[in-house]
Amino acid sequence: MFLEEEVGRINDILKKMDTLGKNIVWGAAENTVRLFQYTDVARYNISQIVDSNGNGQSFLGYMVKKPDQISWNEVKAVVISSYYHEDEIEKVLLEKYQFKGLILKLNAPGQTKPFYSHLARTQLQTPMEYRHILKRNEKFHNLHQGERIVIIGNGPSIKETDLTRIRDARKMVVHNFYLHKDYEVINPDYYCFAKLNKTEKINDAFYSELISQIGQKSASPQFFFHIADKQLIEQCRDFQDKAVNYMHLANLELELYEDVDITNQMLAGQSVPVDCIQLALYMGFREIYLVGVEHSDILTRQYGYFYDRSESIIGDKDMGVKPNNETTADFRKYLRVYGRLWQQYERLKELAENKGVKIVNATKGGLLDVFERADYDMLF
Question: What is the DSSP string of 205-269?
Answer without folding.
Answer: HHHHHHHHHHHHH--SPEEEEEGGGHHHHHT-GGGTTSEEEEEEEE---GGG-----TTSEEE--
